[in-house]
Amino acid sequence: MRKHMWIPLILVISQFGCVFEYKDRYKVSNISEKGRVEAERLRKELLHLEDLVVGQGPLAAHGRKVSLQLEVRYSDGTLAYNGSAHTLLGLYPESGIHGSYIGPNQRGIRLGLNGMAVGGRRRITVDRSLVCTNLPDQVDSRAGCLLLGDSEIPERMVRKETLVVEANLTQACIPVKLEANIWYIGLNIDIRCREEDTPARKPSDPIWHFYS
User: pLDDT by residue (tens digit) across 157-170?
Assistant: First the structure.
């Protein structure tokens, strides 16, 4: 349903004495100063980040929902995935996302997206230790885990190997929902994505700086 159609719906709801409110749908995981420092260490030591195009829009920061076009290859050039994707950076539950979402154990990809701006394109080389983080580093390289999940297509798997990822960021925002109770029936619906209140990137910030 289109966003402008929610206005008459809300007016109808209000006529029946129903309760509705706007609020953030997802909880933000807390990140301490120690956690931020650790994130920057991993970005410096286990990721190679290269901005091919620097975007000018909102940042993909901790506490944001992001949408992107994603190409994932192994280090030998073999294609693992090419298409759209979504993820929640520091937000949960992940199950609230519709469409292809990045698997929970792809920490390297998530860390690599942090600091991108909408309209930007970044190449992220992910060390195998940050691929399939649910598997020990000693596991056979043929072992794999979820790369992308989607209710409409088969799950996409990826082996625990070094990945070369190219990401084109199309959206970074805070999802907002409409919550309403109508005759004991609860509604919990995403209706818009708030782009304001995003952190600003300073030109002097290194590429591995972690934004929250």
Answer: 999 999 999 999 99
